[in-house]
Amino acid sequence: MDKEHRLVVVGGGVAGLDIATCLSGKRSGTQTLAVTLVDRETAYVWKPMLHTIAAGTSDAGAQETVYAAQARTRGFRYEFGEVIGIDRDRRKLQIAPLQVGGRGHRAWTNDSL
Ligand SMILES: Cc1cc2nc3c(=O)[nH]c(=O)nc-3n(C[C@H](O)[C@H](O)[C@H](O)COP(=O)(O)OP(=O)(O)OC[C@H]3O[C@@H](n4cnc5c(N)ncnc54)[C@H](O)[C@@H]3O)c2cc1C
To answer: Distance from the CA of 31 to the center of ligand 1, in angstroms?
Structure first.
């Protein structure tokens, strides 16, 4: 039976965004990788260009990769939120509530963290 292997990547920086993009749709043995990227921001900004944004010589939008758009075009899932807990033994992730002062965090179990 060809079951999905759920892989979650925490943090869509240089490393995480590349990992999610490259591994999406790949196989792990007989299983297809179902990749989810979690980040507390909605877009990645290429840090070496921050000084141009600060100086006003570059548009911030031109230096960012929007996670939702990248996820849609490259076939992975994007979950917005701040990771507040990782249970490695149970492969469980906790994400802060979406609303400030909100109740109840989100949590789900994965095959790989
Ligand atoms: C101004 C500046 C200029 C730089 N210039 C260069 C350069 O010229 N050359 C070079 O090699 N390096 C440069 N660097 C360093 C380079 O940007 C970093 O080494 C690189 O970004 C590290 O990549 P990373 O994926 O580990 O983390 P980051 O790129 O920092 O990404 C971390 C991601 O994780 C997310 N995150 C963190 N904690 C959580 C959480 N609890 N829940 C959810 N999401 C979370 C953040 O939102 C972020 O998107 C520069 C850095 C800065 C600040």
So the answer is: 31
